[in-house]
Amino acid sequence: MIVNHVIPGQEEGNARYLIAMNCGTVAIHDVEIVSAVESTFANNAARWHEWSRNIAPLGRPHAALDTAQFILSL
């Protein structure tokens, strides 16, 4: 993930987490964004593959359904 706009508050924490978990980067200005995209897909997309491997165990694809089921169970 390449984040190009971070909203102050919780989103700042999310951006820091993304970087700390090595799942993406923050690139605010046009030159940074272009550089991030180029480096992400350089060397047969090595960085993108690394990010993909790192984010996979963090995913919760059923989070919305789990939350809805919990609320309905109350």
Task: Summarize this structure briefly.
It is built from three helices and two strands; from the N terminus they run βαβαα.
Walk me through what this model shows:
The mean pLDDT is 96. Helices cover 65% and strands 5% of the residues. The protein has a two-stranded parallel sheet with strand order 1-2. By secondary structure, the protein is mainly α. The chain is built from 3 helices and 2 strands. The longest helix has 26 residues. Strand 1, helix 1 and strand 2 form a beta-alpha-beta unit.
Number of strands: 2
* Arrangement of strands in the largest sheet: 1-2
SS strand fraction: 5-15%
Order of helices and strands: EHEHH
Average pLDDT reading: 96
In helices, the fraction of residues equals 55-70%
- Globally, the shape reads extended
Structural class, from secondary structure content?
mainly alpha
Number of helical regions: 3
N→C terminal distance? 36 Å
Calculate Rg over CA atoms: 16 Å
Q: Low-confidence spans: pLDDT under 50, at least 5 residues? A: none
Largest sheet: 2 strands, parallel
